[in-house]
């Protein structure tokens, strides 16, 4: 059977990440950064596009896997008719060069192992030249060089443009493989000790996880989501990618395949709030500082997303030599949505800085000047149509969520001036702007006949983003308009109780053919909205159902198909894990919600 998205586990070193399948094959890895070309691209192509499988030779071997404690070290235990082995996969936080380490340990009996390493640079297109050097196999093509070192008892040989390995392990035996990337024009990288690296990696993750201050229900799920968010952080800059993958489909065989290896402003405020609430002030400060650098410049040039270091140009192109996951094409790199106009990002930026200030993070001297310029610019543009939160590739509209986020921008600016007398700003003018936006949204974005906020002015379509209205403070959860919106979305925009972003069947709103699965973060938003509208038992039931959708190692993709019972979209998805953490925190704070009989 071909792999499913949920068949993969994540390992990473806080600068890039790899996906390891249940079959022991690493099918996705970009080196040296999240947004670099992939040297293993079997995930969105075939095995000839690069992978590294390490597993027992027996065809009837059975595997179980788990992360070792609160870490990103993956253990896979294989049971065979002749014995069992454990394969440990991890990437140590790098000194300079990125390493992938795989350690095979015999548990009992004797197990024959097989390995196939097929390196293909530039997203599976370039076959490298492989040679022996200094006890290693070295693969070189253009700017890329990969060194493979393994223990001497392993027999390796070349076959069909791949490196094969064969060996047998008995109880207590350990065999290590180290794959190291470096620029091809530089000298050989330092080869690290795999066992010392394992101890250091475990120590690093245990120390990091111990800082979590969340003590509520489902703590294991919350910790795993926070570890995933940390793993999606590009350590040199503090930016957090939406996902480490590109083009995993929102519909099998469909065209909704996008590159998520960038940093979205839409994720900023929600991620920042989750990190702050869980006690990760250093990570929140790094994310805030990345945001501050990225948005610096003319207010009208604010983008919805940026590269790992704040790069602005992310041109989109297609890779026709890749067949796509489950035949879903085109495979894309880059993201043309970077050029879209989305007014909600102004609110997300202002909300992020307000949350950071409220949490006590030291404010940069020039940060308020940037925020003030953004609000002043928004004052003259909030009435314009845009493409909206979901990056609609269709005509611009007056999206309700975009207007609500414009209200958030004005509201957070006003609250900052009110709470900090030393901060200069025209609070009177911003209050007037805030009131005008609120009045217009309630008049033009609310369908009184149906009792719900709509996707855009004059539209009958629904939008899951309006579930955020009580969380953002636009209206309280006890307001009948909020309750009506929650009920209408639950009645009309769900599939088997899980929430879609908006209707794609028979609707031309996004200008794209085909459909998509239910959106996991939207389903978490529904659980939060149920809590905030006074229905805690229903909120908890939905939350626990969503937890059950995680794969065997606690990871979530972007979407879920209830009919097929499988995950869809890029994986693992930061937004989904932010939704999990945020909902857990909202449920924990449930005593503060508006009660409803």
Which secondary structure elements does this structure contain, and how are they paired or packed?
Blueprint: E1 8-12, E2 17-21, E3 25-30, E4 38-40, E5 51-56, E6 62-67, E7 74-80, E8 83-90, E9 99-118, H1 121-124, E10 129-133, E11 136-141, E12 144-150, E13 155-159, E14 162-170, E15 174-183, H2 194-209, H3 219-231, E16 233-234, E17 239-240, E18 263-264, H4 268-277, H5 281-295, E19 305-306, E20 317-318, E21 332-333, H6 344-358, H7 367-379, H8 400-419, H9 427-444, E22 446-447, E23 452-453, H10 469-472, H11 480-492, E24 494-495, E25 498-499, E26 518-519, H12 520-532, H13 536-547, E27 559-561, E28 566-568, H14 574-588
Helix pairs in contact: 3-14, 4-5, 4-6, 4-14, 5-6, 6-7, 6-8, 7-8, 8-9, 12-13, 12-14, 13-14
């Amino acid at each position: 059977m071909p792999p499913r998205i949920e068949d993969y586990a994540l390992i990473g070193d806080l600068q890039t990440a790899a996906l390891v399948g249940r079959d022991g094959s690493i099918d996705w890895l970009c080196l040296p950064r999240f947004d670099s070309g992939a040297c293993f691209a079997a995930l969105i192509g075939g095995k000839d596009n690069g992978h590294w499988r390490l597993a027992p030779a027996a065809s009837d071997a059975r595997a179980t896997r788990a992360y070792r404690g609160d870490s990103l070290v993956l253990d896979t235990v294989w049971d065979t008719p002749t014995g069992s082995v454990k394969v440990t996969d991890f990437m140590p936080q790098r000194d300079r060069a990125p390493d992938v380490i795989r350690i095979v340990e015999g548990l009992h009996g004797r197990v024959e192992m097989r390995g196939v390493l097929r390196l293909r640079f530039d997203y599976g297109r370039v076959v490298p030249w492989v040679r022996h050097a200094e006890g290693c196999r070295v693969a070189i093509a253009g700017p890329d060089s990969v060194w493979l070192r393994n223990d001497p008892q392993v027999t390796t040989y070349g076959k069909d443009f791949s490196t094969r390995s064969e060996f047998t392990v008995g109880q207590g035996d350990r065999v290590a493989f180290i794959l190291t990337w470096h620029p091809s024009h530089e000298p050989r990288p330092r080869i690290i000790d795999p066992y010392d690296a394992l101890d250091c990696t475990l120590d690093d993750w245990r120390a990091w996880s111990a800082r979590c201050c969340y003590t509520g229900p489902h703590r294991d799920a919350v910790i795993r989501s926070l570890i995933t968010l940390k793993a999606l952080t590009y350590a040199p800059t503090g930016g957090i990618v939406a996902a480490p993958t590109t083009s995993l489909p929102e519909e099998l065989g469909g065209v909704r395949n996008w590159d998520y290896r960038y940093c979205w402003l839409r994720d900023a405020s929600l991620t920042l709030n989750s990190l702050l609430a869980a006690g990760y002030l250093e990570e929140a400060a790094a994310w805030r500082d990345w945001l501050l650098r990225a948005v610096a410049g003319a207010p009208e040039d604010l983008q919805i997303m940026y590269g790992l270091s704040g790069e602005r140009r992310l041109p989109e192109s297609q890779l026709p030599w890749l067949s796509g996951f489950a035949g879903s094409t085109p495979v894309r790199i880059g993201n043309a949505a970077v050029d879209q106009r989305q007014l909600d990002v102004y609110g997300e930026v202002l909300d992020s800085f307000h949350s950071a200030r409220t949490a006590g993070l030291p404010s940069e001297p020039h940060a308020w000047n940037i925020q003030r310029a953004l609000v002043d610019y928004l004052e003259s543009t909030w009435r314009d149509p845009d493409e909206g939160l979901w990056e609609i590739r269709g005509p611009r509209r007056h999206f309700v969520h975009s207007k609500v986020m414009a209200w958030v921008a004005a509201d957070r600016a006003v609250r900052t001036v009110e709470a900090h007398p030393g901060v200069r700003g025209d609070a009177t003018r911003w209050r007037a702007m805030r009131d005008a936006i609120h009045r217009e949204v309630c008049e033009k974005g609310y369908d009184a006949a149906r009792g719900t906020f709509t996707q855009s002015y004059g539209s009958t379509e629904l939008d899951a983003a309006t579930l955020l209205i009580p969380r953002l403070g636009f209206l309280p959860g006890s307001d009948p308009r909020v309750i009506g919106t929650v009920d209408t979305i639950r009645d009309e925009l769900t599939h088997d109780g899980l929430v879609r972003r908006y209707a794609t069947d028979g609707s031309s709103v996004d200008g794209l053919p085909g459909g998509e699965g239910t959106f996991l973060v939207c389903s978490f938003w529904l659980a939060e909205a149920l809590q905030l509208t006074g229905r805690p038992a229903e909120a908890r039931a939905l939350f626990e159902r969503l937890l059950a959708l995680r794969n065997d190692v606690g990871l979530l993709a972007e979407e879920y198909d209830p009919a097929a019972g499988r995950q869809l979209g890029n994986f693992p998805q930061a937004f989904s894990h932010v939704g999990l953490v945020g909902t857990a925190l909202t449920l924990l704070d449930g005593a503060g919600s508006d009660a409803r009989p």
